[in-house]
Amino acid sequence: MPLSKQRFARPPTPPDTDTTLRRSERFYKRKDIPLDLSDAFDWLRDDSSAVKIGDKCYTFENHPGLVYLPNYLNEHDQKRMIKLSLRDIPAPPNRNSLDAHYKIPTEGLWHHYAANTKTDVAVPRAATEPPREMPSYYAPSGERPLINNQPSTFEALKQIAREHNPEIPPSPTVKPLNGERAMYKLRWTNIGHYYHWGLKQYDFSVRDPQTAGPIAIPQPVAQVCKGAVEAIPWQRTCVAEAAEEWKKGYKPDAGIINYYNLNDTLMAHVDRSEVTSSLPLVSISLGHSAVFLIGDDERESISPPTPIVLRSGDVVVMSGPTRRSYHGVPRILERSLPPHLQNEQEDDEWEPFARYLSTARINVNVRQTGLSDQQIAELVSV
Ligand SMILES: O=C(O)CCC(=O)C(=O)O
Ligand SMILES: [Fe+2]
Questions:
Q1: Which one of 31, 176, 278, 323 is least enclosed by Cβ atoms within 10 Å?
Q2: pTM (2 decimals)?
């Protein structure tokens, strides 16, 4: 999972060497000069810096296992996925970024956002819960190390599943939020197996309260990801041999929905918490466009990273060696919301979604932990 988004990072970013990746991140973040996208890969403008392996399907020579499917989701499916991401999925058993600090009404937040409720609906937990100590696995305040978290192992996950691993204590300073403020403060919703941000590991002690079993990925999300993996002409990629195995056993079981406001960025990181280091990660872009930046497996690498313009409906698949590549989102593109996601009359439910999207991008980021059904059963029963 990524490091925290920049707006959450209260302490300053530690001094970093001036790597090609950092330089490129800074370039796309700059708001004091007009944005220059001439070096970014944009399939609508020029496809010469990528390898076209199918209709709307590209690979990149420097990133073995990276597959880009522009405009994979049609307008109807984008809207369906947006409704799921905002209205349906941010509710139990899926945890979200506000849950640790706020009590959220059982009907969720969307309903209040859509109805423009002016009363406070997310109330600070600290007001009603006894104070708790900060668990040692959270970095002391004032420090934000550049974490190179270790790849996960089954044994480590077993140990975590046996323990009760408290979340960060509720903040004593947060203020109550109405529906609108709460939705704009929402940074992520967890889907599938629970990812513990303090431990930077999946925590199987957190189960679906209804089934007491593992938390499942919402079915429509799993289906879209499966469809994308099956749509790729893997035999034309340089990971063709390994892909034969992935295709057979592809079963996404974990992930995160990221919500970005126009000024948000996501710092370059590697998603290392999955036991597997090569199974496909499927990433769906919705709403405003963004610059996605991908390098290789070293933060200090001297080779220049590849910037790609991602639009609503685009899918990026990271697999094979690229699964361990640094990547991030240094820029959301202003004024890039496509007309079909703006307010329209045919769908009378759409108005609040258009309102939300007018300043937002959503990313549905879906992984496979690489654990067998038997291993998962063992983890949820310890
Ligand atoms: O927003 C994106 O396109 C990428 C998100 C990401 O890298 C992550 O969630 O790990
Ligand atoms: Fe990531």
A1: 31
A2: 0.93
